[in-house]
Amino acid sequence: MLVAAAVCPCPPLLVPAVAAGAAPELDALRAACADALGVLSAARPDRLIVVGPAEEEGRGPHPQGATGSFRGFGVDLDVVLGGGGAVVGEHDEHDERELPASLAVAAWLLERVRWSAAPVTGLGVGEPLAAERCIQTGQEIAARSGRVALLVMGDAGACRSLKAPGYLDERAAGFDEGVARALETADVAALKALDAELAYELKAAGRAPWQVLAGAAEGAGLGGELLYEDAPYGVGYLVAAWS
Q1: Is the pLDDT score of 133 beyond 70?
Q2: Residue 61: is the preceding peptide bond cis (ω within 30°)?
Q3: If exposure means fewest CB atoms within 10 Å of the residue's CB, which of 78, 89, 133, 171 is most exposed?
Q4: Can you list the positions of beta strands (E) in 180-235?
């Protein structure tokens, strides 16, 4: 049963060591992410599942204790999912795979707030994954026994300005606004109905994870709160908490 969810963006720039001199520009975003994680902790879950975009080789599942790094971004910094040793009984053939970037950012966020409320598992989802499969994955997560919380990582459109990674696309602001309102109101139907093709064109990496959330939240009766909405560097970053 899903008891709470937090939605956070996953740019490596969230990590101050990666952002370097630009780190203060995202202080408000980091604070909002910490607040969202506080909502998860307050829900007293039995398990936290972190979902974020990943390439095929990084999808996992990744058990607690899985490691990631930011060396690819020029920083000698390692992170551990859940901040502790691996959970007994969860090792499988995926255990040695390094966390994808989105889950490494999540691991850093969890370490930053000293997460200890529940064991953690990471799951990467691919950008091409069809909405129906994303929703089914979410339903399977919610069907697990006990109280489950979700940390959902993913950026909105990367086409919000001329200097954005995807250049300016006039459709991006409207797409991001629709996602923001859906997250603010915990509108499961709106997240399910997101246009996967448009999301791809706008480089919105959060589309598949958001639709996993939609599947998990069916019938859970959660309410939403939008904690952050902005587009620094031309990329839409959204933070929300559902409880």
Answers
A1: yes
A2: yes
A3: 89
A4: 224-230
